[in-house]
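Reopening: Heavy-metal resistance protein still failing for me.
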Amino acid sequence: MNRGRWTVGIVLTAFLAAIAGVFVGRVLIPAPQPPGIELHELLHHHLDLDDRQKAALDVLEQRFVVRRQALELEIRADNARLAAAIEAEHGNGPQVAAAVDASHQAMGELQKATLAHIFAMRQILRPDQAARFDRAVVKALTADSK
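Support: Ran it again with your exact input. Result attached.
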């Protein structure tokens, strides 16, 4: 076998091994879930909510989706203004600083709205459910972000 074929064979084998490794890794090692997923899973599948609680939770979630989307749009707009300010000033000038402050304001509002939503959900729970919910919230907030 000549040297060129040998090299192509090794490159092809390495490529196929890499693809197989990625495939096996994705199948065998589950991707980490964002902390909010655990909280959602707990609420909907492990707290044994009664019909009244489920209905109240649905209303809370529908309201929060609208509020969250509005704040996320505001954050995207702030990011666009930040990009324009960076492009205009090419440094950390007054427009950039103002755009950063506006972005932080919107992010803070999203965090406050999220916390208000969490507390509203907690209000519909029985004491035994609330204790489990509180542990899940603390775990979500202190989860290692590796």
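Residues 1-31 form one domain. If you still see a failure, please send the error message rather than a screenshot.
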